[in-house]
Amino acid sequence: MGSEQLGAAGAGAAPDRGPFFTLAEVAKRNSSREAWLVIHGRVYDVGRFLDEHPGGEEVLLEQAGRDATESFEDVGHSTDAKEMLKQYFIGEVHPCDRQNEGSKDPNTTSSSQSSFWSTWLIPIFGALVIGLMYRYYMLDGKSS
User: Fold this and answer.
1) Which of 54, 110, 113, 130 lies 20 to 30 A from 40 at CA?
2) Which residues pair with 94 in a beta bridge?
3) Dihedral pair phi/psi, residue 33, rounded to 5°
4) Position 83 pLDDT exceeds 50
5) Which residue has the higher pLDDT, 76 or 89?
């Protein structure tokens, strides 16, 4: 660990949470040697995972050095992938940068999950009702 990392870790360390890093510090780590990501306010060093990532290292390098929460959630990672993330955890985003960062709390329901109802279920239900109405009126029309 370099002295810069130790300084950042020592100054803002919190018990059971890890050191704090500013978004500016994370932004410096955007190469294949050091690839840091912010996901849900937590900082991960995914440099050693680059070769193993199923989507290829380019995907991670594209997000390296910034908040990748939205991209991570949009892909729809499995619970195993989310569990694997823990081994790359190195710290938290500094509280001063939390307000500026656009990541969501991982404990809240994501809008993509709640939009399932409006995206799929309501249109399917509507099509079913229209289909039944059409069938009813077509059968009614033939009998009269």
Assistant:
1) 54
2) none
3) -75, -40
4) yes
5) 89
49, exposed or middle or buried, with CB in 10 Å at 0-12, 13-18, 19+? middle
Report pLDDT for 4: 41
Dist CA 86 CA 5 (whole Å): 19
Residue 60, amino acid: L
CB 86 within 8 A of CB 44: no
d(CA 102, CA 136): 50
Determine which helix (DSSP H) or strand (DSSP E) holds 90, and give its type and residue range.
Answer: strand 89-93
Q: What's the confidence (pLDDT) of residue 12?
A: 40
Helix/strand/coil for 109: coil
Q: Sort strands 66-67 and 42-45 into parallel, antiparallel or unpaired.
A: unpaired
Distance CA 64, CA 58 (A): 10
Q: What is the pLDDT of residue 36?
A: 92
pLDDT at 89: 93
Once rounded to an integer, what is the mean pLDDT over residues 30-57?
Answer: 89
Please report, as a single letter, which amino acid is at residue 137. Y
Q: pTM for this one? A: 0.58
